[in-house]
Amino acid sequence: MSDRRQSRRPIPRGRIYSIAVVAPVFALAFLLRPDAENLRAAGPANTGHEVLDCAQCHTTAEGTPRQQIQANVRFLLGMRTQGADFIHKPVTNVDCLACHQNPDDRHPVYRFNEPRFAKARAEFAPQNCVSCHTEHTGKRVTLEPTVCASCHAGLEIKEDPIAPSHAVLEAREAWSTCLSCHDFHGNHVQTTPVRLEDGASREAVLRYLAGGPAIYGDSVRFRAKTDRGDR
Amino acid sequence: MKRSAAVLTSLVLINLAIYLFVNAPPALPESTVAEGESVPVEEVLSTVAAENDIVRALYTQEIVGKGKLVGLAFQDDWREDGIQAGPLPALFLREAAQSLQRQSIPLGLYLGSDFPIAIANKFEGKQAQVFAALKETRKPAFFYAEDTGQYTAMFPDVAGVQGCVTCHNEHKDSPKSDWALNDVMGATTWSYDKAAMSRGEYLELVGAVRQSFRDAYTAYLEKVATFEEPPEIGEKWPDAGYKLPTADAFMAEFARRASAQTVDRLLAETAPPAAEGLR
Q1: If we measure between CA atoms, which residue out of B212, B247, B193 comes closest to residue B102?
Q2: Under an 8 A CB cutoff, do B24 and A70 touch?
Q3: ipTM of the complex
Q4: Rounded to an integer, what distance in angstroms lies between the CA atom of residue A95 and that of residue A47?
Q5: B189 and B173 Cβ atoms separated by less than 8 Å
Q6: Partners of residue B103 in chain A, C-beta under 8 Å
Q7: Which of A132, B113, B213, B278 has the smallest count of CB within 10 Å of its CB?
Q8: For residue A220, with 0-12 CB atoms within 10 Å meaning exposed, 13-18 middle and 19 or more buried, which class applies?
């Protein structure tokens, strides 16, 4: 036992320092390879985005990194009125809409910027695509399917054709049933069911939002682009 | 040891200062408005609202009104598959608003009322308050929406054509059926995210709004192309029969009606002081 202890030599400090410096450099070099984009991502791409390269959403910020650092330091020192984006611009609705163009969108994000939607904005920020479609979660929709209540509470429909009626569903606070029949963005070619039992089940809706199989049919009106084509 | 640490720290700071300030590449430009060159957002929104009034009157009177007389239809569900119809005037405006979004212009365009056909268009909160006052004054109202940071303007929509009144009174989902000519039926809301803009931005905005009108009309023509019996598309208008103007002809007529007024507004705001005597 004591011989063994004597035979264990301490690792030279210089070698530890060398490893501490070289290993991260190699790791960084590995991660920066173009084909290692997925390893650098904040999480799995959302449904349908698996085929996109990072630059489709993460566009390059203006200037060199040095210019950007300088602009931000000057901003912090009060030497300019605005900071600057660093490396990449923030991902905004503009980036989403570059590929997702639906001229007949039933809930276009811009409409939620109107003053009268203040309550909805305070509750779940529907004016931003990523409020419902938070990226790098591996899902299709990341919000609870009950937010319809924020705008549609008090709904009055003359000659309501559905069973049970919208008024009954609202009285039951069954807001999670809306998506069983209604496609939020209206991008699927479908006939809206008039009986709730003909719509998708709650389980099917939740599976769909989590990235599962389609519930409004496979035929879409406007297919999203895989190359935004504006850069 | 302490001395060497101080020297090392000093060297690092000196290098950092050189990196950041001395041996610097050109600074990134800031998107600010030069003093004396800014146009207030109220003027810009008034200009685009005036343009909107003209295109809306053109579409309502010359396309919808006269189109109906020769067999063209206009409906809420015009975009549905199999529907042989075009957008009602309010939906024409919606198309233009969608186009503005596609152009990534931070200009908001919305239509609402206290008695809308679609409940989603009913004014609430601040807009309802402003609209109540606007119905009395019949003048535009400007306010700042704090939660969105949007400079906002509401312009009264006055029933100027019998077709608007009749359609709103007879629509099955209309909550009000006694509209009359000259009533304030609603308001058009415009918003922008800056209190002022450069003259260049002003012109760019007017250009974007005109493009949105063209896109809205083009969307109608694209739908028309799917009709079982599409009307003739050319230089003629519905007052000459079952015909529609091309997008170019439509925009040319719009420009003829709108440009003089808009140019006057642009000159009033953008001409340098030395040219004031020329106004």
Answers
A1: B212
A2: yes
A3: 0.76
A4: 16
A5: no
A6: none
A7: B278
A8: middle
